[in-house]
Amino acid sequence: MSRARIAAIGLACVLTACSGNAPNQRATSAAELRDPASSSDGARVYITNCSSCHQLDGRGVPGAFPALVANPAVTGNPRAVIAAVKYGLRGKPGRNRAALGRVMPPWQGRLSDRDIAAVVTYIRFAWHNDAPPVTLGDVRAVAPQR
Ligand code: HEC
C-alpha cells in the first residue's frame, strides 16, 4: 500500500473519530450497571466509530491498524481492553509492531460509558471471537492504567 493511501486512511479515521457521538451521560439504573450491553448497539457503535481503522471484518490494515480478530489483547483481560478503548493507546515501539507510531484515540467523552460497554462487548464476540461481555459497571470501574 502506498504512503498516500495510508495517509488517506488515517485522515478518514481522524475525521470519523471527530464526528463520534456526543457524550450521553444520562442517569443509569442499578440493573443497567449489571446487564451486559446489547450487541446490536455494539455493532452500530463499531461501524460508526471503529470500522474506518479496524475495518468491518475486524482484520485491521496490516502495517497501520491492528486486527481485533483473534487478538488476545481483545479477548483477554477485559479491564485492559476497556482501558484501551476508554483512554486510547499511543503506539509504544515493540508493543504492537503493526501500529508503530500510530495512536488509538481515547473514546471517553466521545462515546458514553454505555456505548463503550456495548462496543467492547461487540469486539469480544464478533468475527468468531469468543470472550464474555462487559457491563456498564465494568466500564465505569476502569481507571487509566499507568
Ligand atoms: C484513527 C484510527 C482508529 C480508530 C477510529 C479506532 N482505533 Fe482502535 N486502534 C488504533 C491503533 C493505531 C491501535 C494500536 C495502538 C497501539 O498499539 O498503541 C488501536 C488499538 C486498539 C485496540 C488494542 C488492540 C491491541 O492489539 O492492543 C483495541 C481493543 C481497539 N483499538 C479498539 C477500537 C474500538 C472499539 C474502536 C471504536 C470505538 C477503535 N479501536 C477505533 C486505531 C484506531
Highlighted features:
binds heme C, single chain, 47% helix, 8 helices, Cytochrome Bc1 Complex, Chain D, domain 2, two-stranded antiparallel sheet, mainly alpha, 2 strands, 146 residues
Helix content: 40-55%
Question: Can you tell me the CATH topology?
Answer: Cytochrome Bc1 Complex, Chain D, domain 2
The first-level CATH class is given as Mainly Alpha
- The dominant shape is globular
Content-based structural category: mainly alpha
What does this structure look like?
The protein is mainly α. It has a single domain (3-20, 30-141), classed as Cytochrome c-like domain (Cytochrome Bc1 Complex, Chain D, domain 2), CATH 1.10.760. Helix content is 47%, strand content 3%. The protein has 8 helices and 2 strands; from the N terminus they run ααααααββαα. It has helices at 3-18, 30-34, 39-49, 51-54, 72-75, 78-87, 113-125, 136-141; strands spanning 89-90, 103-104. A two-stranded antiparallel ribbon has the order 1-2. The longest helix is centred in the N-terminal third of the chain and has 16 residues, at 3-18. Mean pLDDT is 77; it is low at 1-26. Bound molecules: heme C. Heme C (HEC) is lined by residues 13-14, 16-17, 49-50, 52-54, 65-66, 68, 71, 73-74, 81, 84-85, 89-91, 95-96, 99, 102-105, 107, 119, 123.
Question: In terms of topology, how is this protein built?
Answer:
Layout: H1 3-18, H2 30-34, H3 39-49, H4 51-54, H5 72-75, H6 78-87, E1 89-90, E2 103-104, H7 113-125, H8 136-141
Antiparallel strand pairs: 1-2
Helix pairs in contact: 3-7, 6-7
The protein binds heme C.
